[in-house]
Design a protein that fits this description.
Distance between the termini: 12 Å
Structural class: alpha+beta
Number of domains: 1
Number of helices: 6
Largest sheet: 3 strands, antiparallel
Length: about 130
């Protein structure tokens, strides 16, 4: 199992540090400046949204009170309920069952990870 608190928290810290220095950035700029992979950026965004630290205005993210709680939180709830019913699921099964785009799934995973509600093993997610 991946230690989600440690790994995802560290990535969220990288995103936070870059946004603190740059005011607002797109997801592509965040990828470039943090050297994180795209899915790691969206997990970090979900983590920071759960902490009420990141906001999205148009296509740019900045540090501020979040406006993402409804969108990401709702998707996190869908994933949580599905995992409660099905147990372990691979990311591809989450994508096919929920009909949510990949970026939104990863943001919701970041949200749930910040709540310490899921664990991951090679793209297989399960509740704690």
């Amino acid at each position: 199992m991946i230690n989600t608190i440690e790994q995802f928290g560290r990535n969220a810290g990288k995103v936070w540090d870059v946004l603190k220095k740059n005011i607002s950035l797109t997801d592509l700029e965040l990828i470039e400046l943090t050297s994180l992979r795209e899915y790691e950026i969206f997990i970090a965004i979900g983590w920071l949204a759960r902490e009420n630290k990141i906001r999205k205005d148009e296509n740019k993210y900045k540090l501020d009170t979040t406006n993402l709680e409804f969108e990401i939180g709702e998707n996190a709830g869908l994933i949580w309920r599905l995992l409660n019913n099905e147990g372990d699921l691979h990311i591809n099964r989450l994508l096919s069952k929920l009909k949510i785009n990949e970026k939104d799934i990863y943001s919701a995973i970041g949200w749930l990870s910040r709540e310490n509600k899921i664990k991951i093993k090679k793209d297989i997610y399960k509740i704690l």
